[in-house]
Amino acid sequence: MLKEQILDALREADGEYVSGQQLCGRFEVSRTAVWKAIGKLKKEGYAIEAVTNRGYRLSPQAETADLFNGQEIERFLHTRWAGHPLIFQKQTGSTNDDILRLSDEGAAQGTLAVAAAQTAGKGRRGRTWISVADCNIYMSILLRPSLRADKAPMSTLVMALSACQAVLDLYPEIARPGDPAGTLRAGIKWPNDLVIGREDEYRKFTGILTEMRLEETQIRDVVVGIGINVNEMDFSEEIRQSAISLKLALGRTVSRAQLTARIWERFEENYEAFEAAGSLSPLQDAYEALLVNTGRRVRVLDPQSPFDGLAEGITETGELRVRTDEGEIRTVGAGEVSVRGVNGYV
User: Residues near 127 by Cβ (< 8 Å), separated by ≥ 6?
Assistant: First the structure.
């Protein structure tokens, strides 16, 4: 499209002005067509300066703005299959539902649905994921794993690891669990919540939902959806004590396009290792290094027999290992129970 071509030309100019005449000649279009394309880019949030007799240029602020659209994501995305094709929408009902529909239409593994807003976001255990518009990330990917059905749910932990690694890659001021007190730290609350905070006062900023469909005993498809509180500034009273955004934690605006791309770069690498092994064994050490539960007392909310104990990491199939007060090691499956800190959320 012309507006994408013009945007590329302005980026290539590296802050210098490009005349309308140059753009017309390069793309063999009229001045009116150039003017209309520039107008569309401005509506999408691109800061473009226009000066008579000089032309157009991208404002220096353009590269630090939170521009969130398909083209911006693809500009940062360097993967072979994860995120291809990419379907971006300003608003949808649920990106998980979008991927299920696309799967029914024959979409390939790696198809990614991304939205700036959801009207029917889904959380675990039938809960609603509150989807604020135009400040967060909501996205889902289609997988067609060559695995037994009982192994596919581990994709959820692969997603959690990948998203947490991406955050640590991009924002060096965020430390890992266990780093010195007083630092801003991010990690994974088993099995798949991403949390961030100081002095171990963690709050959640990411949730993940995996859905699997079977044909008899074979996997038909798997959809992994993730919602990330990125630039949200206010939360309802109901969740204010347990939820946070990256912007609130960092004190600055975060590029959703760049974060989206980095997550899928990490995911592609991690998922391939997981699928080849048929377990989390090649990722276990990396996951445990980011697990905020490790070494903490937890309460396992099993409806049949709840118990307290000390979390000691995960198994190669993703169960949480908990040492009970009696010294017994018990493993807890993610689909079976909830785990909470004895004195709080983590």
Answer: none
Residues 6+ apart with CB under 8 A from 57: 10, 13, 15, 16, 17, 18, 48, 49
pLDDT of 132 reads 73
Query: Which pair of tokens denotes residue 126?
Result: 């039938």
Report d(CA 22, CA 18) in Å as an integer: 7
Per the document, the length of the chain is: 346
* pLDDT per residue as tens digits for the range 211-259: 999 998 899 999 999 999 999 998 888 888 889 999 999 999 999 999 9
Q: What is the helix, strand, coil percentage profile of the chain, to 5?
A: 30, 25, 40
Q: Name all contacts of 95-98 with Cβ < 8 Å and 24+ positions apart.
A: 95/138, 95/139, 95/140, 95/225, 96/122, 96/140, 96/209, 96/211, 96/223, 96/225, 97/122, 98/140
Cα 281-175-333 angle, rounded to 5 deg? 35
Among 270, 271, 279, 343, smallest CA distance to 316 is for 279
- For 216, residues 6+ apart whose C-beta sits below 8 A from its C-beta are none
**161 with 287: CB under 8 angstroms?**
yes
Rounded-to-integer distance, Cα 139 and Cα 196, Å = 20
List, in order of start, the domains of the chain with CATH numbers. Answer: 2-64 (1.10.10.10), 70-289 (3.30.930.10), 297-341 (2.30.30.100)
pTM metric for this prediction: 0.87
Give the integer Cα–Cα distance in Å for 158 and 277.
13
d(CA 328, CA 166) in angstroms, rounded, equals: 35
Cβ atoms of 169 and 266 closer than 8 Å? yes
- For 145-166, the pLDDT digits (tens) are 999 999 999 999 999 999 999 9
d(CA 166, CA 147): 26
Question: 213: which 2 tokens?
Answer: 């469909």
Residue 121 φ then ψ, to 5°? -65, 145
The token duo for 294 is 């490790």
Give the span between the Cα atoms of 240 and 172, in whole angstroms: 26
**Rounded to an integer, what distance in angstroms lies between the CA atom of residue 65 and that of residue 14?**
16
54 close to 67: Cβ distance less than 8 angstroms: no
